[in-house]
Amino acid sequence: MKARIVVRMSKPHYGGNLVDGAQMLSLFGDVATELCIRADGDEGLFRAYDSVEFLAPVYSGDFIEAVGEIVAWGKTSLKMSFHAYKYISPLVGPGQQPSAAQLHGEPILVCKASGTCVVPQSCRRQALPGEAIGRPGPVILTAAIVGAETTREQTPYLPITPEEIGDEAARCAQAGATVIHLHVRDEAGHPSQDTERFRAAIAAIRSRCDVIVQTSTGGAVGMSVDERCGPLRVRDADKPEMATLNIGTINFGDDIFVNRRLDTFGIAERIAQAGIVPEIEIYDLGHLDILKELCEKGAVKRPLHVQFVLGVRGALQASQRNLELLVSRLSSDFPGSTWGVAGIGRHELPMAELAARLGGNVRVGLEDNIFIEKGVLAKGSSALCEKAAALCQSVGRRLATTAEARAILLAKPSP
Ligand code: KMH
Ligand code: ZN
Fold first, then answer.
1. Which of 22, 98, 176, 256 has CA atoms 20 to 30 A from the CA of 246?
2. 307 CB near ligand 1 (under 6 Å)
């Protein structure tokens, strides 16, 4: 959750037109107040700063943007970070018009701080009808335990047989995962979208743990659309509750992951006909525009659950700036939708923490990343789930139970 204010400095305090640093803290105080109101419907109290750094001088006439975000959610406390940037300054000097001003190409960081605000339990408020306040709910942790591209040569911890897949899913559930994103393999370990192989893997998972099974319709690069839809033909008791819906074509490393417009409509229709809930896979900003058309034509029903897959070589990269842009587009264009992030490779765990901080959900697993830390293989997706669970806890977000995840993901009312 973020807040920002923009103010022009007007009161010099020291010689040389210099503004006093307390003005930055005054701006941070207002930003913190807005964050408390956004989170809890109350102005709250600023308890303490644990760090303040003044990094560049601020003069009368400078335009300052102060931004703050909640970085950890306590029961009554909200931990926040603040940054103040100077982005316009008067241009003074010989030969300059008195009204000359300079727009800094790169805003200058003038002050940063972190601190804690408190909103007593008795002051916390529920949102009024139509009011957009409130804390994020629990984190839904998805484990992508197989994938189509990860190989046994890369990691011996990759599950391949239904039994191995079932055991790994159960370990992930033990670590807090409530959704298993599922691909399957043939006897040789090659990616497969075979209906019966999915049936066997789903049965193995469900005999061991209570999780939402989300089958892939992306399959592996190069598969036909019909082949990719194999898991949608699993019916009756073994039917998956969710399936992915990939929205657009991207470069995928040195390959191309093809999702033609009409194919996406076709897969959306097959998912709907099977009575399965789609998870929308977004790899690039333009995919949200394609998604708009799918919504407008009724191919998918809002509110949606969207997975931002960031860091594929050839698509949108994994950064806070990119994620914030996606999240703000999602909330303005697709109100009420829920979202998660799957960071690829070394971005997996940093993106997991960021998603938890920003109020989203988290996906980890060997499909996306095989390392628990630089150069050290994760001993299965469950080890990555444990790490992700700890990251969620460190920013004050608890994990959803399977019942909660079902209520959020599967019972979305149509607007
Ligand atoms: N294997 C990727 C090319 C999905 O599961 O829907 C596609 C993929 C997406 O994994
Ligand atoms: Zn996948």
1. 176
2. no
CB-based contacts of 89, cutoff 8 Å, min separation 6: 59, 61, 62, 63, 101, 102, 104
**394 CA to middle of ligand 2, Å?**
27
* Mutual angle of helices 320-333 and 348-357, in 10-degree steps: 50
Q: How confident is the model at residue 68 (pLDDT cuts 50, 70, 90)?
A: very high
Q: How far is the CA of 243 from the centre of ligand 2 (A)?
A: 10
CB 142 within 8 A of CB 104: no
Atom of ligand 1 nearest to the CA of 281: 6
Stretch (H or E) spanning 242 = strand 242-246
Domain ranges of the chain: 2-123, 141-409
In eight-state DSSP terms, residue 82 is: E
Q: Whose CA is nearest to atom 7 of ligand 1?
A: 218
Q: Which two tokens stand for residue 44?
A: 């709250």
Measured between alpha carbons, how far is residue 96 from residues 18, 87, 99, 100, 388 in Å?
Answer: 20, 19, 8, 6, 55
Q: Which ligand is nearest to the Cα of residue 251, counting in written order? A: 1
Could you tell me the pLDDT band of residue 412, with boundaries at 50, 70 and 90?
low
406: CB partners within 8 A, 6+ apart: 212, 241
Distance from the CA of 179 to the center of ligand 1, in angstroms? 16
283 Cβ closer than 6 Å to some ligand 1 atom: no
- Atom of ligand 1 at shortest range from CA of 148: 1
pLDDT, tens digit (0-9, with 9 covering 90-100), for 379-392: 999 999 999 999 99
Name 103's Cβ contacts closer than 8 Å, sequence gap at least 6: 87, 88
Q: Which residues pair with 3 in a beta bridge?
A: 68
- For residue 83, the 8-state DSSP code is E
The number of the ligand 1 atom at minimal distance from the alpha carbon of 244 is 6
Q: Of 3.20.20.70, 3.40.50.150, 2.30.110.10, 3.30.565.10, which CATH number belongs to 141-409?
A: 3.20.20.70
pLDDT, one tens digit per residue, over 5-34 is: 999 999 999 999 999 999 999 999 999 999
What is the CATH code of the structural domain delimited by 2-123?
Answer: 3.10.129.10
CA distance 46 to 48: 6
- Which ligand number lies closest to the CA of residue 242? 1
The stretch 134-162 carries a mean pLDDT of 97
| CA dist., res. 309 & res. 257, Å (int) | 13
